[in-house]
Amino acid sequence: MSRQTNPFNSPLEAGIRLAFLLVEAYPRALSLDHLVMLDHILVHTTDFDGPESVHPASPYRIAEPYVRRELIQRALVLFRSRELVVELPTNQGFVWQAGDAAAPFVETLTTRYHRLLRVRAHWTVSKYGDTPELTLAATMGERVVSAIGIEVSQ
């Protein structure tokens, strides 16, 4: 009996998105938390006043950053094993940077989806790549909550 693997919501799919983000951010290195948030923005650019999202809107997307963390960790480990990303120690913990093979790898991805993803990754990093994590988390909370129509009392 053969066992099929679903490529959606897999470390491979997330790793490809991370490769696009890290190539755009290079030479900057980003923390796991920053990557989790940027990956969420990359998938839901419309929620952040960006270009049309490449993935459909989900009514459950407010919870995605919380469940996405483990997937992003697994993707980073997979892509590190292929030298597409590198893990660098800092005084604040580990950060991640595009590896030498990352840019050539993403250049080989030429489907319509990947071209759209590249544009969204450029927009995401240009707009939010330098945003401090706490500020980005607050921005995500406000925008994701308003995007799904929940009113937050202040």
Note down, in words, how this protein is organized:
The protein has 154 residues and is mainly alpha-helical. It is built from six helices and three strands; from the N terminus they run αβααββααα. The chain has helices at 11-25, 32-43, 64-81, 102-107, 112-128, 133-147, and strands spanning 30-31, 85-90, 93-98. Strand 2 and strand 3 (93-98) form a beta hairpin. Helix 1 packs across helix 2 (32-43), helix 1 (11-25) crosses helix 5 (112-128) and helix 2 packs parallel to helix 6. The longest helix is centred in the middle third of the chain and has 18 residues, at 64-81. The relative contact order is 0.21. Residues 148-154 have low confidence and may be disordered.
Low-confidence stretches: 148-154
Distance between the termini: 56 Å
Order of helices and strands: HEHHEEHHH
**Helical segment count:** 6
Helix content: 40-55%
Quick check: average pLDDT? 87
Can you tell me the overall shape? globular
The major β-sheet equals: 3 strands, antiparallel
- Using the CA coordinates, give the radius of gyration: 15 Å
Structural class given helices, strands, pairing?
mainly alpha
Q: What is the number of beta strands?
A: 3
Q: Which band does the percent of strand residues land in?
A: 5-15%
* Strand line-up in the sheet with most strands: 1-3-2
